[in-house]
Amino acid sequence: MSKPVDNAVSTVRAYIETHHDAFLQDLAEWLRIPSVSAQPDHAPDVRRSADWLAAKLRETGFPTTEVWETPGAPAVFADWPSDDPHAPTVLVYGHHDVQPAAREDGWNTDPFEPVVIGNRLHARGAADDKGQVFFHTLGVRAHLAATGRTTPAVHLKLLVEGEEESGSPHFRALVEQHRDRLTADAVIVSDTGMWSEDTPTVCTGMRGLADCEIELHGPDQDIHSGSFGGAVPNPATAAARLVAALHDDHARVAVPGFYDGITPLTDRERELFAELPFDEAQWLRTAKSHATHGEAGHTTLERIWARPTAEVNGIGGGYQGPGGKTIVPSSATLKLSFRLVAGQDPDHVEKAVTDWVAGQLPAGIRHTITFGAATRPCLTPLDHPALQSVVRAMNLAFDQKIRFTREGGSGPAADLQDVLDAPVLFLGISVPSDGWHAPNEKVELDLLKKGVETAAHLWGDLAENWRDAH
Amino acid sequence: MSKPVDNAVSTVRAYIETHHDAFLQDLAEWLRIPSVSAQPDHAPDVRRSADWLAAKLRETGFPTTEVWETPGAPAVFADWPSDDPHAPTVLVYGHHDVQPAAREDGWNTDPFEPVVIGNRLHARGAADDKGQVFFHTLGVRAHLAATGRTTPAVHLKLLVEGEEESGSPHFRALVEQHRDRLTADAVIVSDTGMWSEDTPTVCTGMRGLADCEIELHGPDQDIHSGSFGGAVPNPATAAARLVAALHDDHARVAVPGFYDGITPLTDRERELFAELPFDEAQWLRTAKSHATHGEAGHTTLERIWARPTAEVNGIGGGYQGPGGKTIVPSSATLKLSFRLVAGQDPDHVEKAVTDWVAGQLPAGIRHTITFGAATRPCLTPLDHPALQSVVRAMNLAFDQKIRFTREGGSGPAADLQDVLDAPVLFLGISVPSDGWHAPNEKVELDLLKKGVETAAHLWGDLAENWRDAH
């Protein structure tokens, strides 16, 4: 009974072995382009990176490849319809821009001159995110080779943006502008990681994000704390009392309505989290922190993956120079951010926080509160058929049990979910040691192959098991 | 029965009228010296101011005048013993340095070119503090003229420092160094004000001051709030929770032991405060504040004069630039100051705060707490014989009921009280509109005369009614 699968696995592996050197040479050529979106003098490089990728995708077989302009850096779109009219449509997301990197930051080699050391390819972008975008090129070729098809089993689209490392400022508008071209039954994000080399995992969701700045005004200017202190409200004290009131004594967020609508963590999900080989002491070292602290009744992994938070990102008021200054300060500022989980509505949270803040302040303290653009949370249920396909494809590639994680951070994937009204799945093969945003970024060559294999197996499985998606 | 007093009053007034023009010319000469202690390029002017004053005091009649060096700006000491061996010794305190001033700050005239406009003398230092030091020169001469004495009725000493506007960094050491020369039964501070032109008052005390800086450390560097937020302690949150816990819901300081030892405000003192023509709306305008706020059960005047406070002078942590940054910050800093009232021991408060802070912080937040040099509170009881003398002398000068105030701020007077173990009395004739530290500083010429008159009446009264002081 396992013969066809075994055959598929070995056919895919053989195809990949044959083409692996050329694949790596191509990837190295792309990695040599320093597409640093945060640095204006690299803008031509970011454009060159987009052009290079569009050409490479055409060479891969995508009949349509386009460079899409934004007010910032360009994105690349590619489209390869299936000859199967019942095939589901899948949109793969990644980015072709990279973090800044310079030899003097601590790199052992030139960050833009890729080099293989042992079984690792070192270069800026090797893992984040060029390597993970690029495994889809060889992946879809291996899929065709193993199935004898001339078009993919799914209608395959790629959207590779050029501003992810700069906060994706134009991404949502781009997706809205091209909504008709981007329609999909599912989104596959290849810009995340796995638990570790030994524990392959698939991410099932990301937290959302709402953030605000609160300005508190007391006296019209700093006033003398001897002449007036103790008899007028102090905006720094008011800011501090707001922050203190944000959480109750169990570290739960105390803003009424904040938890409304949350999709509860199921017992099964909690069990799956608990099965992961989590080493809290090691995690604390990664967090550069000296104790855990968080919502009562939840483990650390639950706290960072599945529970919403209210965090102070910045606070400032009054005199912050050397020595002291005996004033009642005129103003104070708070920067707060809220990580959101599935079921939470950012607009509802924004209103709840706004109302709550207004009710917390003493007479004589005026305030403004300004929210930034929110990012919605996303979560794919464990029993979603597309998620099952990803798990099966990874299982074939890794020949190991695939476990589940979530991502505590927030990303542009949520914009795709929102605008396209499609579930978001994560196919990432990076590991924590890959050094995203750090010197000596690398990708494990064995994992890169597993990425190619997973992509090669995924499209057939999705088409077969999810034909009624749309 | 009132004949001798009337005679004394008119004799003093006649003497002052005769010498008033010369007095004003001398004061103007002194005010022309820009003795700005905060500006290093004015250091020669501060020295010139000290030399000028020493010479003027010798001309006034003080047999001993000395310029005392400090590691900063020099002070002036003058000593005029009484021929009455039973006379009490009085030390007058003031300062000869001034705040910075420049025409472009909003002055209508050159701040160092004194000018009389209407009944006001405008110049930097006119009220703070050269004018108030200088009324003692004509005052003691009028005292001698009215009493026919050749030496003052008290053993009169003056100490006029040169660094008050720079925080008196060397004052305490100076007083300790010259303790034997400065011994006194009472200290008279002429560096304060009255309630208003219409309501002459005498100040009976100043609050003390203890201040500290608290540094709170969480993660070893700023960390990602998505990856780690909600699961590790945030030092900005810890700082805020400390501040929030400083006060209970009645705005009382919640640090155990903070209120230990306080000399209670008597019913009589509360009545006297309440009798003052206090206009809260006007006070709020002066405070540039939009509401009152303070310890329950106390009026605004009680809060600023007679109750201790805990105030946040500065708070800072995490990202304070434009926009947002999704971090758990590595550290946060608090600057707190505590105004102290009579009976509170700064060392006890320092220990109470230190112990309390250590017990408030969650695991994983390390901290340091550093206190600056404290200033003790001072308070002279209403029935103190020297205070009664000041009130009677002012009453003769103003021909009005003299009321009582206190001062919410803190000053070097407390060092004199501590080192010399002498009660501190306040004889100040400045009014709130005089513009201390502001452009167009002025002194009311009528009040300046009242200051001279008060000084002229004070020494005889003190000698007569307080012969057993020492």
Automatic annotation (TrEMBL), chains A, B:
Its EC number is 3.4.13.-
Q: Which UniProt keywords apply?
A: Dipeptidase, Hydrolase, Metal-binding, Protease
Q: What enzyme class is recorded for this protein?
A: hydrolase
Q: Out of the domains of life, which is the source?
A: Bacteria
Q: Which GO terms describe its molecular function?
A: dipeptidase activity
Q: Where is the Peptidase M20 dimerisation domain?
A: 205-362
Question: Where, if anywhere, are coiled coils annotated?
Answer: none
InterPro entries registered for this protein in UniProt: Cyt/Met_Dipeptidase, Peptidase_M20, Peptidase_M20_dimer
Which PANTHER family does its entry note? Answer: BETA-ALA-HIS DIPEPTIDASE, SUCCINYL-DIAMINOPIMELATE DESUCCINYLASE
NCBIfam families referenced in this protein's UniProt entry, alphabetically: PRK07907.1, PRK08201.1, PRK09104.1
Annotated protein name in UniProt? Dipeptidase
This protein's species is Streptomyces aureus
Its taxonomic path starts at: Bacteria, Bacillati, Actinomycetota, Actinomycetes, Kitasatosporales
